[in-house]
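Let us work through a complete example step by step.
Step 1: write down the sequence.
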Amino acid sequence: RGPLHVALLGDLVVGNLPRLRAKADFPIEVRCVPAAAPAGERDAAIRAADAVVTTAFPWPATDAHGLRLVQVQAAGWEKVDTACLPASTTVCNAFGHARAAAEYALMTMLMWTHRWKAVEDDFRAGSWAWSGAVNGPFRNELNSRTVGIVGLGHMGREIASRVHAMGVRVLGCARTAPADASAFDHVYPLAQLDAFLTQCDFVILAIALTPETTGLIDARRLALMRRDAVLVNLARGPVVEERALYEALTGGTIAGAVIDVWWRYPDAADPSPRPSSLPFHTLPNVMMTPHSSQWTEQMMDRRWDMIVSNLRRLHRGEPLVDVVRAGRPLS
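Step 2: predict the structure and record it as tokens.
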């Protein structure tokens, strides 16, 4: 077979060219198209490619008849407009992020239950108020809590296994129960989300963003949560209704939130926007990070193992894995 023609689109992907070169054990020819490249250069690369690796695909390319695979360098593929693609093009996503997400979830829940930020800030300022030496206030341990996870894919299951190992009561909620539910004390169907929410001290969102899950956590469902509960969003911002969450946090409906995914992101017009139209950054009961929970060296290396494996399969004519849109055979 001749070389596989691969186009890397966008700065987030082009930066991983060394990974592709190091991992590919089959012949490839690569064209790198950074975000600032002219549209004509990008379009030519797409039409010359057997496979494109990207984080988004909003460009009309239904005439790119040689394009067999759009490989997304992410688990979420909502930025791929399948209407722009030939019907014969398969779309696949990639994972590798579950371990990092699980560590982040565990870290933030431990920080919350042990009041880490308040304790350290006060001690740096000279106060021993949190110390047992002066009969300071008790804090909690995570192993005394109930953690609920919405969405039991790669990320949800990995979080469950880490939390379960600490003796925490773990509940799951998903359309389909996992084949191995040993890390869960109970798994609710998504249709019973309301009952699930009432049971949890922490609610972790790890569910894919779809039309059905957009606004899944609204004002009514936030009101079902315990007043001392914390919402942890590792899914996508729009899974939660933005204003409803802000009002729940300012009004005492829930105790707090850990937010890593947002409603606004940088773009060419505004490279440093506030992540919401509402001032979440002013709230003391919010822990917030810039969609960085899974952004680790090890995550990207695992992800490119998966991407290169799919490119190898394409080159050899083998079935692809992690298919989210199967291409129709050419007639």
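Step 3: interpret the result. The chain has a mean pLDDT of 97.
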